[in-house]
Design a protein that fits this description.
Blueprint lengths: L2 H16 L11 E4 L5 E3 H16 L5 E4 L3 E4 L7 E8 L1 H6 L5 E7 L7 E8 L5 E5 L4 E3 L2 E3 L11 E3 L6 H13 L3 E2 L4 H9 L5 E9 L1 H13 L3 E3 L16 E6 L2 H8 L4
Parallel strand pairs: 3-5, 11-12, 11-13
Antiparallel strand pairs: 1-2, 3-4, 5-6, 6-7, 7-8, 8-9, 9-10, 13-15, 14-15
Helix pairs in contact: 1-2, 5-6
The protein binds D-MYO-inositol-1-phosphate and calcium ion (CA).
D-MYO-inositol-1-phosphate (IPD) binds next to strand 5 and strand 13.
Length: about 260
């Protein structure tokens, strides 16, 4: 079984197991602070267990880097890392706001740039975004590419959650000038929307994103033809470590990148 098929099956199982749970009181159950540093909610735990159970069931020899469960070595003979944010957008999932997803990626080595496969499933409806290195990016069964032409409405994604006053000051000219700024609350799904051409540029300069929030989006955005850069506008990369906190920008092309970044102070 190919790695991408394993990730797709695991995320289908997450959807089946959490679709009735989201937005209920039971979703919110508090399991203490997880490996990523946030409180693990019941819905996070149910989703992670689904993936771990499946990988064990098929004897997939890997090391899992989960946002809640931490590093779980499923084999001494590991083929690589499964980077798992079983629920991205946990606050939306708990409250029932229909914008949350699962994010699963596979990497042969301990860098973002070694990621070969990624799957993001929109858990409000089961729709799936997926990509394998060199093979393109897909939304369900259709190939997707970023929106590389002048849009009718320019949609700008900016993550402002917990942003510092300084960062908000730097970003202010964008808020002043553009009318269609979006912050939807699940980083991986926002990257998937960007890859599908629904958002023209997505900016997160807060230095808060964890590798689990970005791993599947990394390969899906790249395979959809997007530019993926760090805060110095160099190609994005990072160690796959629990300490890493990332800033990034995903842009459909150089033109929109230059236009928007010329306004950030
Ligand atoms: C969060 C979401 C959110 C982003 C946070 C992440 P989680 O992930 O991606 O959009 O602003 O920085 O922590 O905690 O819901 O998996
Ligand atoms: Ca999460």
């Amino acid at each position: 079984m190919e790695v991408i098929e394993i990730l797709r099956e695991a995320s289908k199982r997450i959807f089946e197991n959490v679709k009735e749970l989201a937005g209920t009181d039971n979703a919110a159950g508090d399991f203490g602070v997880g490996a990523g540093g946030d409180i693990s909610r019941n819905i996070d735990i149910v989703a992670e267990k689904t993936v771990l159970d499946y990988l064990k069931e098929i004897n997939f020899e890997c090391i899992v880097l989960g946002e809640e469960c931490g590093r779980v070595e499923l084999s001494k003979n590991s083929k690589g890392f499964v980077i798992m944010d079983a629920i991205d957008g946990s606050a939306n999932a708990v409250r029932g706001v229909p914008f949350f997803c699962s994010s699963l990626a596979f990497s042969t080595d301990s860098k973002l740039s070694s990621i070969t496969d990624g799957v993001i499933t929109d858990l409000s409806n089961g729709e799936m975004y997926w990509a394998s290195k060199g093979k393109g990016a897909f939304f369900n069964e259709s190939k997707i590419v970023v929106h590389d032409k002048e849009p009718i409405y320019k949609i700008i994604g900016i993550n402002t959650s917990g942003a510092s006053k300084d960062l908000m000051k730097r970003l202010y000219p964008i808020f002043e000038r553009y009318n269609h700024i979006r912050h939807l609350g699940a980083n991986a799904l926002e990257m998937a929307f960007f890859a599908r051409g629904l958002i023209d540029i997505f900016i997160d300069l807060r230095n808060k994103i964890r590798i689990q929030d970005i791993a599947a989006g990394y390969i899906i955005v790249k395979e959809a033809g997007g530019l993926l850069l760090d805060s110095d506008l160099r190609p994005l990369d990072s160690e796959l470590s629990y300490e890493a906190r990332i800033s990034f920008v995903a842009a459909a092309n150089q033109e929109i990148l230059d236009e928007i970044f010329s306004q950030i102070k």
